[in-house]
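Cross-check.
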Amino acid sequence: MSNRRFLNNNAIAKIQIILVFAMVLLFGNSCERKDLYLRVNGIQIEVEMYDVRLDLLWGIDWETEWQYTWNESAADFGTIGYTKPELVKGTIYNVDSYTGKRYSSFFKIFDSNGGRVSLNAGSTYDMLFYNFGTEYTSFYQSEDFESYTASTRVSSLASWIRTRGETKGSEMPDTAKSYVNYNQPDELFGSLAANLKISEDPSTYEKEYDEYGNLSYIYKVDAALRPYSFVYLYQVVVLNNNLDGKGNYITGSKGFTITGLAQGVDLFTRKTFENTIAVSTDEVKPIQNHDDVRLADGTTVDNADIFAARVLTWGLPGIVPIETTKAGSKAAELDQNFIGIGLTLRNGLTYTITRDITEQMHEKPAGGVITIYIDANEIPQDVINQRPQSTGGGFNASVEDWANEINAEVTI
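Predicted model, tokenized:
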């Protein structure tokens, strides 16, 4: 029986494709890349999820730059890189073979045990996969199926840059002070297999026999998962933190805010949105004392304090972060990156500072370690020794009601 006659048999209206979905995060040339295998053998696609390798992202030397002590088994960062997704959503698009336009879609949720979905022989498909079950990420599919975006909503967290007490002396330019504070995105990984033509001719596929001697056919497609959201680790090195011998001037931090970040990303093109937002976090790790702490000039000091936070972002605006080794200088001030830090003083007051971190962020467009240095001795002694006002107990998250907040700039 010829191949053509085999396919025209009325008993077989479709081609079965067993899709072995080997999801692997790409982290560099040293990381072996797995492919997506399609086995043609009947009427369905079967997707098998392999473990995702969570090596360190290409171009990031977390452990060399990172000085804060973390413990993978303790209630700390858990990991300074990425965590493994549990569920994957596969959106399968029907594509017009002549125009290349997507005209309809359907989806399937897969777990580590896989699942099945039917495709028609002689058709063309695009397949978009990303981890499912995100909490803070909003997805939008355009009606013409030409764009599929992920973004986050406005955050209820307080900003650690714009406060009631901010002075004209802030090192942030005036235009950079106007922004909207958004939630951090979830960790999001994805892959697009585009223009997948399901041939009606089995001779176009590689042959393979299973353990029972059944013949199947294999077609390879690049389907390696890569991150859409990126991890930045912000570590704050505090120098001269106890010069008067009465205890640390700075005892920790209430939170961080980072400006000049993209609001979202297009899942098809992987390009981030042009418009900029800020992202805040109040999940700051406790302050630690360290010896042999590296300074910005490469020298070390024997005694310094460090506190830190892990922040997820969509990256810098208007670029494809994983294809960019260094983001270019931004002409618009709104694209500059500033960090606001709500320092907690030993008297219980919150002392807010800002720093320009544009250069560091542009050097690491796909995430990495950002280090900020603060000289605690630059904080005015009258602020350090000020007695906090009594507010009658409780905490009010409204910035306008923070009577005990002091906003100032510490320049090293």
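The two ends are 82 Å apart (CA to CA). The chain has a mean pLDDT of 74. Passed to J.P. for a second look.
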